[in-house]
Specification:
Largest sheet of chain B: 7 strands, parallel
Structural class of chain B: alpha/beta
Shape of chain B: globular
Strand order of the largest sheet of chain B: 4-3-5-2-6-7-8
Number of strands of chain B: 8
Number of helices of chain A: 3
Number of strands of chain A: 6
Shape of chain A: elongated
Helix content of chain B: 25-40%
Distance between the termini of chain B: 48 Å
Structural class of chain A: alpha+beta
Oligomer: heterodimer
């Protein structure tokens, strides 16, 4: 449900960054942590709606998922979770969260110059 | 051509949340964001807490619709402001900002923000709180930390309400604690009953400690 608002944030942030330059966005690289609750398909769905008739229209979204890193309280090994449990895959000990997995940011975008015929439409955005 | 961005998508919300937090801190108001499922007992917990704290308390209620919770608070003598999100599944910083000037608040007051009933989305939106509470109740089951890791990782404190039902419901307490500890080694866990009052003393003590720290900062 809240993907609509956050996708609007994505569109707004990118529009601010390209800042009325005659550019078309072709790709958007997003980083989303395992522990965040954002769903790729929902982001794509709302992006298709909110980017229409903007320089982001038609851009391909790329999702980089970052796993949460756990540390075993028994053997000290670090691991990423498989499935629901927090069990260390090396010794079976209990794992505890250490870092990562909370990310939600725009890493980068790919742009190309827009043709002159598109400029007037761009200026209306 | 690649353009590096490296921008937090929640930056606009986070900036407002920071302003809200500063507003609370400057007035000596301890803001607590309570996040839990519908029916876990957030309102009951707040009312029981208010009756035990012996300090000024104000509440911001967040619901999709209705003012039932705010009314309950007001009728029990707790000033409350209702936010209806009209469909949004969470409160955000801008919604809280919008009601700051309607709060009937004094210095050294406790402000409880009762978020929309939901274990998922509210965890993603800082609203300007000093502390985020992840709340569960016994009938919901001990597996919820495993199913909703985001909230329990981010919570500063975890409350397990309706602890008086543990003898009557097959609640695997060890599984629950293990799940919380795996995600959040540091957060205190308080097993309470807003109905009977059991376990509430430690929660109250924790709150008073946080208020004291705020007063000294």
């Amino acid at each position: 449900m809240h993907e609509y608002g956050v996708v609007q944030n994505v569109v707004d942030l990118i529009m601010q960054r390209i800042n009325e330059k005659p550019l078309k966005v072709t790709d958007i690289n997003l980083v989303i942590g395992e522990l965040s609750s954002y769903v790729d398909d929902s982001i794509q769905f709302y992006f298709d709606i909110l980017s229409k008739d903007t320089p982001l229209d038609g851009a391909k979204l790329h999702f980089k998922r970052v796993p949460a890193v756990f540390g075993c309280t028994h053997c000290g090994a670090e691991f990423t979770r498989r499935g629901m449990a927090f069990v260390c895959p090396f010794c079976g000990g209990d794992g505890a969260y250490i870092r990562q997995g909370m990310e939600f940011y725009i890493e980068s975008i790919e742009v190309e110059e827009r043709g002159d015929k598109d400029l007037s439409k761009y200026n209306e955005c | 051509m690649e353009i590096k961005i490296y921008q937090n998508i929640m930056s606009a919300n986070d900036a407002i949340a920071k302003d809200n937090l500063d507003w609370f801190s400057n007035k000596g108001i301890l803001a607590i964001n309570i996040i839990g499922s519908p029916g876990c007992g957030k309102s009951s917990l707040i009312m029981k807490t208010a009756s035990m704290l012996e300090a000024p308390v104000q509440v911001i209620e967040g619901d999709v619709a209705s003012s039932i919770d705010a009314q309950r608070m007001i009728e029990s003598g707790i000033p409350a402001v209702q936010i209806n999100t009209g469909g949004a599944c969470h409160l955000d910083a801008n919604m809280i900002k919008g009601v700051l000037n309607s709060l009937d608040i004094t210095d050294n007051a406790f402000l409880f923000i009762e978020n929309v009933g939901n274990l998922i989305c509210p965890a993603e939106f800082d609203v300007g709180e000093h502390f985020k509470v992840g709340m569960l109740s016994v009938p919901e089951g001990a597996d919820k930390p495993y199913k909703y890791p985001g909230l329990f990782t981010k919570a500063d404190v975890v409350l397990l309400n309706k602890a008086d039902l543990i003898p009557y419901i097959g609640f695997d307490r060890d599984m629950f604690i293990k799940g919380i500890r795996a995600l959040n080694p540091a957060a205190p866990i308080f097993e309470v009953s807003a109905l009977t009052g059991e376990g509430m003393d430690k929660w109250i003590q924790w709150l008073r400690g946080r208020m004291q720290e705020l007063s000294l900062s």
